[in-house]
Amino acid sequence: MDRLEKAIDIQPEHIKEAMNKGDFHVRSTESKDKWYQLSFGGKDGMPKCTCQDFSHTGLPCKHFFAIFEYNAEWKWDSLPSRYRENPHICLDDDIVFSQVDLTMITPFQISSQ
Ligand SMILES: [Zn+2]
Q1: Residue 100 contacts by C-beta under 8 Å, 6 or more apart in sequence?
Q2: Gap from CA of 40 to ligand 1 centroid (Å)
Q3: How far away, in angstroms, is 111 Cα from ligand 1 center?
Q4: Are the beta carbons of 17 and 76 closer than 8 angstroms?
Q5: What is the pTM of this model?
Q6: Which residues have CB less than 5 Å away from ligand 1 (the ion)?
Q7: Domain locations in the chain as residue ranges
Q8: Using an 8 Å Cβ cutoff, are 107 and 58 in contact?
Q9: pLDDT in 10s for each residue of the chain, 113 residues
Q10: d(CA 54, ligand 1 centre) in Å
Q11: How far, in Å, from the CA of 48 to the mean position of ligand 1?
């Protein structure tokens, strides 16, 4: 799990809870002045993170994994079930990245049908 390894670079103090429940600010591991906005999506929304990895793949990025790691309240189960049950994120990363054109992955459209 590449993302899980990268999540180790993120320190607990680099994660801040935002005003809205389920929203977080996570500091970039590349630049200490850069913070990504992350949201678990709540009841009606979809999870999102403003980092490049997430916007390219729609898959949970290292910032999500860092929160799973450090925050007792927000876990994988906190993601909306319609997102978790999406077939794309059940695939092993190697399969996804070797066989699928990442720009063709549209988990939000699929799961909202
Ligand atoms: Zn991210």
Answers
A1: 88
A2: 11
A3: 20
A4: no
A5: 0.73
A6: 49, 51, 54, 61, 63
A7: 2-111
A8: yes
A9: 567 667 778 999 999 999 999 999 999 998 889 999 999 998 788 999 999 999 999 999 999 999 999 999 999 999 998 888 877 665 555 544 444 444 554 454 444 44
A10: 5
A11: 8
